[in-house]
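So, can you check these tokens?
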Amino acid sequence: MSPLRRPLEIAVVTALVVVALVLVVLALASSNDPPPVAADDDTAPRAHSTADSDRTPEATGTDAPSAPDGPGRSTLERARKVLLKTKPLDVLVLGDSSSNGPFEWPAQWARNLVADRTVLIRLWDDGSESFAPPLRPQSSGQTFTVWNLSTEGVAASYGTAHLDAVPADPELVLVNYGHFNTPDDIGPQLDALLAGVRERWAGVPVVLMLQNPTLDSRAGEQAQIVAYLRQTWSVENGVPTIDVESVFREQGDLAPLLADNTNPSDAGTALWTDEVTRQLTPGALPGG
């Protein structure tokens, strides 16, 4: 045997032994792996995704985008469902001179329900700080009482200060302020009002009116207020809106819709009433 051949044979044998050991180790490691799971195996554990199961459907129409519905959130659909109830109902309106009289939109809207309800309109008397006896049209059926705490020329802070005067537990609250607020104070005042409402009547649906545009000296501020309420305040607080402002602007000429460059005329009130009726009538809109 050649003296060079024996070392070569030893090297080959050593290499084969090393390869064999590596294969054994790999085989043992492979036997401890869990079996593969098919992509369509429904028994496989799935990661919880907030982008799927917890996603809140995007609001449509004038519903404010919000977290899942609860005591601190409201939608127009919840308001419509309240109005489907056949038992006696109480609705609270908090507002200013665009909603305070016997012929303004709250009374006109409520009278649209006169066919199957006894409609009671309780107007607020600022002098006595109490609700006047009801305006009672001829009707029948369960009572539908509108406690209208609207007062001429007041800001949203007025409503907050008089919530304790409401003698009933409303099942729907309609808020109608802005004409006599400023862009600086409307947010804090509505914050306080909403907190007061939710403290007294937890879970009650709250709906905010976006008031009509004006032609007075404060027209620019009024436009700023409505834009803020539409884009920021209503979204942050989960409060749906009824966009009366846009409905007025769609008519083009505002003058015939205003009685005094601020408050709605008879034509403006009719337009306002139609929009509230359309938005709050159960079944009238998708999702309602």
About this structure: Residues 79 and 144 are 14 Å apart (CA to CA). The first helix runs from residue 5 to 31. Residues 1-5, 28-61, 65-72 have pLDDT under 50 and may be disordered. The first strand starts at residue 89 and ends at 95.
